[in-house]
Predict the 3D structure of the following.
Amino acid sequence: MFGAAIIVFRETLEAALFVGVMAAATRGVVGRGRWLTAGVLAGCVGALALAAGAEHIGALADGLGQDLVNAAILAVALAMLAWHCVWGASHGAQAAADARAIGASLKQGQRAPWAVMVVVALSVLREGAETVLFVGGYATGSGSSGTVAGALVGVLAGVALGAVIYQGLSHVPMKRMFAVTNTLILLLAASIASQLARALAQAGLINAWGQPLWDSSPLLRVDSPVGTLAHALVGYEAQPTGLQLAFYLLTLLVISVGARWVRGSRAPRRAPPAARASAHA
């Protein structure tokens, strides 16, 4: 029971934190509850379907089907999170200043609320599929007695902790909400990039820099409560490979530079001194 609870708690917490951050980032958006709920439900259905067909999927591409599907899910999620961060750099300040303007922009079609649903669905799908597969394997190896109860405890604990973190974010002043949530989403994107690197390496698509750079397990184990939270929030790995670190840092750099460039290109340009002087004349 305890083993199943830990497995499910870890996976549920990652999904719950992701959903919580996205919920906080879209606070004030008209209809965001429907899109978030639809994303969670779609992810759950997809996770069950993916888990049900895991044996068939795994047999594809000479046994690499599951790794390829996992890499594809991570790549799409990373692309959409990067889009959110860069797009938010040019629109976030105004959105944070007036939440009603966000709802208006949705009504006018200036935003794509379905993007929130898709990225949430992908996160829930991946974590949910892993949960089903892990619990199934655990039940097979240790017997089904207590597994369902342990899984239920893990789900409730993960959702509860995710809700607590969301409540903390919801108390952040609206004018600072953009900066806080965009930073969290940037770290989530870098974490997903690290996981993508691992998936590509497991699929044999990239073989460079595959050795672990260090081992911080004696200080903080990934499967410990604090390690689980750190992994979910910032992508902590006790034994990261060079490829994972490169993907992590490159994602931080590309998104940060892209956001700065977009923000600079959309900033209002001040008129030359001579023009301002003539305007006041």
